[in-house]
Each structure stands twice: as C-alpha cells, then as structure tokens.
Amino acid sequence: MGKKEASWVSHAAAVLLLPFNVTVIIPSLLLYFLPFQFVWGTEGGLVFLVGGLGLAAVLFGLLLVVLTVRQFAKRGKGTLAPWDAPRKLVVSGPYRYTRNPMISGVVCILLGESILLGSVWLAGWFALFSTINYTYFIVGEEPELEKKFGDEYREYRRNVPRLLPRRTGWRQGE
After folding, report:
1. Where is the secretion signal located (predicted)?
2. pLDDT of residue 89
3. Fewest Cβ atoms nearer than 10 Å: which of 3, 11, 119, 154?
4. Is the pLDDT of residue 2 over 50?
C-alpha cells in the first residue's frame, strides 16, 4: 500500500522548518547579532522607491511559495520537505514556467528583505543561500528526480528552464 497524502500538519511543519527559517528566523538573527545600519537614509523619494521594490519582491516571493506549496499538496501528494517529497512530478501552476519556483520564491523574499532593509548581511545571506541551493539542484536534486520520475522528468527538464521562466506555460506532451 502506498503512502497517504501529506497532512496539513506535515505542510505546516515543512514550511516552518524550511522557508520560514530561511526568510524570517535567520535574517532576524543576522539583524539582531550583527551591526546594522539602514543604508538608504530616512528621507526622500529614494527610500520609497527602493522600499517599494523590496516590498514587491517579498510579496512576489511569498506568492510563489504559497502557490508551490499548494501544488505540492494538490498535485504532488507531498510537501516541500525532502523527507516528505511529492510522490508525483509537479508540472502545473508555477512549475509550468520554471523548474524551481519554490526556491525562486524564497530567493525573491530574501532579495526583497535585503533591499527593503538595506542590509549588507541580508544581501550576503541571499547570495549564500542562492548559491548553495542552485548548486544542489544541479548535483543533487535533478539527478534524483530523473531517477525517481524517469522519462517524464527528462521531458519536463528539456522544456522548462531551471531558473529564468518561460514566456508561456509548458503543458505536458507539447
């Protein structure tokens, strides 16, 4: 008998342990323990322009994370966590445009936070996190997905880019 669909508790735990830690806990600790000075100043139009750009990145990233968690639950029958990964290959929703929208969402949140707060430490965390994850995709995750899903994943990989999104959403069998 196969595994059951992941529960809402499994999804909540995965979100709290992974993207919440990466985008809230670690940035909070960096800002608390390391010297911080708001680099954009406190007056003028630049603050609002930069703040708006940072806020837009955070909100867009949050939207991507929510949409991908939903796809993992509905279509993949699993969570974003590697210990309870989707049992079916997810190629719908944001996954029609890029192979890694979950991490792209987290990266957008981190970039937005570093812009919004003008923090060099948060920018460094954004760069480190992005580098580690995109390297992991190439050497770890993609070979495992190919083993797990075979030709279905190879077709998906041929048609959907890893990072920069397609202009139009891909549909299986195109």
Report:
1. none
2. 93
3. 3
4. no
> What's the total number of domains in the chain?
1
SS3 labels along 26-76: HHHHHHHHCCCCCCCCCCCHHHHHHHHHHHHHHHHHHHHHHHHHHHHHHHH
Q: Are 163 and 134 in contact (CB under 8 A)?
A: yes
| Tokens found for residue 109 | 């949140």
The domain containing residue 68 runs over which residues? 8-25+43-159
Task: Note whether residue 132 is domain-resident.
Answer: yes
32 assigned to some structural domain: no
pLDDT in the model for residue 15? 83
Rounded to two decimals, the pTM is 0.88
Quickly tell me which residue has 């390391």 as its tokens.
Answer: 34
Residue 2 lies in a domain: no
* Token pair belonging to 117: 């707060």
Average pLDDT (9-33) is 89
Q: What percent of the chain has pLDDT over 90?
A: 63
How many other CB atoms are found less than 10 A from the CB of residue 5?
A: 12
SS3 content of the chain, % helix, strand, coil (to 5): 70, 0, 30
The answer to whether residue 171 is domain-embedded is: no
- The Cα–Cα gap between 116 and 57 comes to 9
Average pLDDT, the chain: 88
Distance CA 115, CA 54 (A): 5
